[in-house]
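To: structure subgroup
Subject: Chain for Friday's discussion

All,

I'm putting the inputs and outputs inline so they're searchable in the archive.
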Amino acid sequence: MGRAYDPARAMRERLKTLEARERARTEARAVAEGVAETVDLARARGAAFEKPAARRGERETPYRRQAGLEWLTRKRRINALQRTAGEAYGACYRRAGAGARIGSTLEVQPSGGLAAGPSLGMLLKQAAGRQRAEVELAAMRARLFGQSDLVSVCDLVCGQELTPREAGGGEREAARVEAVLKVALDLLARR
């Protein structure tokens, strides 16, 4: 037998549904405001963001942080050859700085060889790749004549992917960082 229709119960269930929707909307607004505040603070420090426009009827698109070289290219402050040289430097920098993730055990594969960690072969391959990247990075730094300004600007903008403003700490220093970076990228682009 079916239950009899209880208007009071139906109203309570409807009220619960409406309250849940309102909580979800309130939470979504709070998250959107938090994201906007975080983006504004990062922009104030010099980070560059891209926010593709949402198409009609679609959900809001997320922000995407622009790397320093990408930002400089979009502003037409560096050319494709300079960007390629900077990306190569950045790839070597990040690969050379990537340390092996070794757990708290002396075994290469903790827990008796189960698929809990990378194999010994994979660890050796990663170490060899890191070592090659360190050699390439040292060669690139030698092409910069070991000049600390040139190397540090490349480390910050190409390696850590900061914008010139983030790397310099403000508008005034951003112009100097950008000028030094252009010289460094020209030196790196020459083979």
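Points worth raising on Friday:
Helices lie at 7-44, 68-74, 80-97, 120-143, 148-159, 164-168, 171-189.
The mean pLDDT is 84.

D.
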